[in-house]
Design a protein that fits this description.
The chain is an alpha+beta fold and 86 residues long. It has 3 helices and 3 strands; from the N terminus they run ββααβα. Strands 1-2-3 form a 3-stranded antiparallel sheet. β1 (7-12) and β2 form a beta hairpin. The two termini are 13 Å apart.
């Protein structure tokens, strides 16, 4: 939100997915309306910053006990950097 990017994060337990949309996705119609090009741009910027995400907004990411605080911080820093150059 701070970067002015319309992004929605959905999750169940440790499974998450990112959508680029003004509204929270609540079903197939809102999910398929999300901006796939923006997701592709985000995916590429995260790769450039050393963070490997699922390559489609229709796939889930997972957080586990293997993700240390340092890894989570690196990921958050990569998100900040991605949006800084948006």
């Amino acid at each position: 939100k701070q970067a002015g990017v319309p992004i929605q994060q959905t999750r169940v337990g440790t499974m998450f997915t990112t959508f680029f949309s003004e509204t929270k996705p609540v079903g197939w119609n809102t999910v398929k309306a999300a901006d796939k090009a923006q997701f592709g741009k985000f995916f590429q910027k995260m790769l450039e910053n050393g963070v490997y995400l699922a390559p489609s907004q229709f796939e889930a990411g997972f957080i586990s006990m293997m993700h240390t605080e340092a890894i989570v911080e690196k990921t958050l820093d990569a998100v900040t950097e991605a949006f800084r150059t948006w």
